[in-house]
Amino acid sequence: MQIDIVEESADILKLGLLFGEDQDVTGEDLPEVLSFKHLLIQEYVAAIYITHKILEDQRFLETAFPTWAAIEKRREVVRFVCGLLKETDASPMVNHVCQKMVENTYSSLEHGKGLSLIGSHLGEDEEEDRYGDLPLLWVFQEEGGVDKFNEFLCVYPDSGYPLSYLLNNTQLVVIRSLTTDLSDLDSISEQYSAKIIFDVYAKGATADTTDERLHYVLVKLGSKDNILGLHINRTKLLASLGVLPKSLMYLTLTRCDINTEDQCELLVGLGKMHRLKYLHLPSNRMKEHGFHVVQGLKELAPQSQLKNLNLDGSFLPCIVSELLLETLCHHAHLERLQLSGNMVGGKMKLFTTSSPKQLKELVMRMCSPSKEDILSISSAFHTGKFQNLEHLSLSANRLTDSVLEPLMEAVLATQSQRKQSILLDVRRNKLSESFLKEWVQAFATMDVEIKK
After folding, report:
1. Residue 64's pLDDT is what?
2. Are 302 and 327 in contact (CB under 8 A)?
3. Prior bond to 157 cis, omega within 30?
4. Domain coordinates of the chain in residue numbers?
5. Which range (339-353, 363-377, 421-435) has the least confidence?
6. At the topology level of CATH, where does 344-452 sit?
7. For burial by CB atoms within 10 Å, which of 14, 187, 312, 433 has the most?
C-alpha cells in the first residue's frame, strides 16, 4: 500500500470535514479561507503530508520534528505518522522514524528496535515526559524483543479493560492511574504473564491516596519479577517505599517529598535491585537523609548495572556528597550522572581519579564546586578518565575566568585524542565576554561546543 496524498485529501473534502465562513465544503469550488471541523482532522491531514514527504526523503523527518518541543506540540500528528507509515510498503521505516524522533529529543536513550511506542504513548508535558515515557522506551529496549510491542502494549485504564484481564491476557501493561476500582486484583491469576510499568502522575486530591493504593498494588503484584519500571510524580510516598520490587529496571520518583528519616531509610532497599539501570530521584530535598540512598547504592555496587543516576535537587550536604561520589566510583557501568543542587565543594578529586570509564554526562548545576574541584575535573581530561564524556554542565556556579581556565586548557589539549565531541555548559557564571569569545574561537575547528 502506498499513500496517495491527493486521494487522501480528496476524501477529507468528500466527507464534508472542511468548512468555509458560511458553508460546508464538499465540492471543488473552495473558499479562500478553510477551517477544519475538528483539530484532530487538521492533525490527520498534516500527518498525511508529513508521511508523504518522509517516504520521498527520510531527512524530512528532522525538519518536521527537530526537537522534543516540536514533538510535544504535535503529539497527535506523531501518532498518525507512525500509524500511516505502518500501513505502507515501507513499514520497516516505522522503527527508524521513531528512533530518529527519540534521537532528536533525549540523547541519553539507548536506541534500538521497538521505539515505535512514541507513536502511541506520550505523557502529560515536556518536563514529565523527560523523566517518564522516554525512560519507558529505554527500559523496553533493554528488555529486548520489543520490536512488535505496539501489538501487545495495553494502557490501563485507557484501554477500557479491567486490570486483571490485561495482566492475564497481554504481554505488557502500562498502569497510568490508580484512581479507578482496583478490587478486581483479587481475581488475578498467580500465573499472570504481563510485564508491568507504573507511570502514575498524581494530581490534586488523588495525591493523598496514591501511596496507599500503590502499596496495595505492589503487594498484590510484586511477588513475581514482572514489574520492570516505576515512575511516580508528585505524590507523598511512605508505605510504598517499603515494598519496592527487586525486579525494577528503572525507578523514577519525582517531587515525591522523600525528605524524612523514615522515608529515606526505606531506600536502603535499592541495594537489592540488581537489575536497576535507571534511577531518578529529582527534587526530593533529601538533605542529610540522602545518606540512606548512598548506603543502598553502596550495597548495590558489586553487582551494579546502574547506567543513569539523577539526584538533582536533593540538597545533599558536602559530607553526604563525598560519600556518594566515593560510592559511585564502584559503579562501573555508570554513564550519566546528574547532581545539580547538591553541595560538592572540594569533594570531586576521588571521583575524577576513579570515575567509571563509561561516563558520558556529568551535570553539576548550582553545586558550588571549588577551584580544587575544577582542577580535579581538568586532570580527569589529561589522564583520559573523561575520554568518553560528551556533556559537562557547570552552569550557575559563579565561576570566574581564572577558575575555569585550567579546564578549558585541558579540553583544548586533549580533544584531538578524544573520539567524541563534547558540550560544555558554562552559562550563568561570572565569565567575561572576552574570555568566552577567546575560547569559542579556540574551539572553532574542534568538536567542542560551548553553551554560554
Report:
1. 74
2. no
3. yes
4. 1-120, 344-452
5. 339-353
6. 3.80.10
7. 312
